[in-house]
Amino acid sequence: MYIGDFMSERLRSLRALANQRWRVSIWLTAAMMVVYFGFILLVAFNKKLMGQTLVPGLSIGILLGALTIVTAWVLIFVYVRWTNHNYDDQLEKIRNRN
To answer: E-strand spans in 10-97?
Structure first.
């Protein structure tokens, strides 16, 4: 095997891994945007629903706002977990190839 073949194989692996990372990032970003803009659109166009009280001191708007924040945390956790268990392992394998 020539050095050029090794480098091109390594480069292809790195590009494939980078593409995989972009796909995961785009899906998670799209999910967050749907949640966030869905919440904002509800606030803007359905104030009556958002103002309904579930229990004293807790409206649907407050609950959905809190769930929007929690969703962001969950999506961050998903990305970090995917990175630690998939991306980093694959990157290390590519680096250690002889």
So the answer is: 53-55, 58-59
